[in-house]
Amino acid sequence: MDSISFSPVSPAIKPFDSKSISNSNTPFEAQKSFSSVLKQQIEKINETQLQSDQLTEKLASGADVDLHQVMIASQKAGITLQASLEVRNKVVEAYQEMMRMQV
Hints:
2 helices; cytoskeletal motor activity; 103 residues; structural molecule activity; mainly alpha; single chain
């Protein structure tokens, strides 16, 4: 039986600390940092989707899997995907708002 562990989303979101910001970061370094964080979060979302798919396949094939574990994994995958889509929508909206600004 596979066990599902729930990890909080909050470790990915760190509080703002003005001491941790250094003025020596170049735009290129900031872009690399942002892209690496984004890539890690997308990989985590993909892992939850794959875990849900695996449990669903096991249940459909008749393996010894608890239905409630499959439903929890499915809901977790759905919620993480939905939350990531909302974040993406907010980022696109912010980008569009910036593009409408007159210089």
